[in-house]
Design goal:
There is one protein chain. This protein is an alpha+beta fold. The protein folds into 2 domains: about 130 residues, no CATH class; about 130 residues, Nucleotidyltransferase, domain 5 (2-Layer Sandwich), CATH 3.30.420. It is built from 11 helices and 10 strands. The strands form 3 sheets. Strands 6-5-4-7-8 form a 5-stranded mixed β-sheet, with helices on both faces. Strands 1-2-3 form a 3-stranded antiparallel β-sheet, with no helix packed on it. A two-stranded antiparallel sheet has the order 9-10. Strand 1 and strand 2 form a beta hairpin. Bound molecules: zinc ion (ZN). Zinc ion binds next to loops.
């Protein structure tokens, strides 16, 4: 049985064996389990039921389904991870560490770390260039906290940031009108060179680009793009030429940030954007269950540990 709702998912994944089977099925889709220590393939291991691990005949080492994934060095059970992942990919406006903590019974601080890891893995793989088949809407936006919704002590900190003009973070986004896929990233500034580089990195050669008339988008035609603009002083839509799609994504992003999140330091903001991008890019043609399966495949199907993800880089401290 596949769960359909959050309540069903929590019940379903409360069984440790169910979790192991779910992760194993996506990690080794052909059913051929491979020893992560020595690479020995199927039928070279046996299952130790009490320890919930396999033992490899060849290298004599034991391994669990978590080895070689981001779950590896976590003491938390897969039930917690899978429930958190379900909430992350299916709660439309995002989910907070407090909600994860309530649903799974773990401490809020642990929930915060779980969320950060999952977001990092959900980051779009960016294999295909945008704009192969249709126009791409490009736009930039400034995201920042709303001081009116803040605790006094934090507001004071913000005041300092505001006087130093560091409180708003620029984000650049691109929406492929044909595939309905979004890419978005924190950028250091919105200067022409920065925006052009992002476009060059992500768009197919010769793609059609729609933007507003911001001067940062000047000279795109010189970079072998077909560039058309809409003058927002006069109108928002001129036939096919508009940026309503990416602006719709911005409002989803901002709604999620406002409703759920408190801190928007650039590092954390990047993770929230990845999360929103994943939900946006997987909103059509999916049920909650299939969206979760896709996310889990992305998490479990990759041989990727926390150290691979971050290198030696330390995760910044929890904000607030
Ligand atoms: Zn082995």
């Amino acid at each position: 049985m596949t769960p359909r709702t959050l309540t069903e998912a929590i019940r379903h994944y409360s069984n440790p064996q169910t979790c192991i089977d779910a992760v194993a099925a996506l990690r080794w889709p052909d059913g051929c389990i491979v020893c992560p220590k020595c690479g020995a393939a199927d039928r070279k291991h046996y299952w130790l039921d009490t320890q919930k691990r396999w033992k490899c005949y060849l290298c004599r080492k034991q391994f669990s389904v978590k080895v070689g994934t981001i779950f590896e060095d976590s003491l938390l059970g897969l039930d917690v991870w899978l429930t958190a992942l379900w909430m992350l990919c299916n709660c439309k406006n995002g989910v907070s560490s407090y909600e994860i903590a309530r649903a799974t019974g773990i401490a809020q601080k642990s929930a915060w770390h779980v969320l950060q890891r999952l977001r990092l893995v959900l980051k779009d793989m960016r294999e295909v260039a945008l704009g192969e088949e249709g126009p791409v809407e490009c736009d930039e936006v400034f995201v920042g906290p709303d001081p009116r919704r803040m605790h006094a002590s934090r507001r004071l900190k913000m005041q300092t940031a505001i006087t130093q003009r560091t409180h708003k973070v620029p984000v650049f986004g691109m929406l492929d009108r044909n595939t309905r896929q979004v890419r978005a990233q924190v950028v250091p500034n919105v200067r022409r060179e920065t925006l052009q580089n992002a476009i060059l990195e992500n768009l197919a050669h010769g793609a059609t680009v729609y933007t507003d008339q911001y001067t940062g988008y000047d000279k795109l035609a010189a970079q072998q793009f077909v560039h058309d603009t809409v003058n927002h002083m006069e109108t928002y839509v001129r036939g096919q030429v508009h940026t309503q799609g990416i602006e719709n994504f911005w409002s989803l992003l901002k709604r999620g940030l406002r409703g759920t999140y408190i801190a928007v330091e650039p590092f954390h903001l990047e993770r929230y954007i990845d999360e929103q991008v994943f939900r946006y890019n997987n909103r059509i043609g999916h049920t909650d269950a299939t969206r979760f399966q896709k996310a889990l495949a992305q998490v479990a199907g990759k041989r990727l540990t926390w150290n691979d993800l971050t290198g030696k880089e330390q995760l910044p401290e929890e904000p607030f």
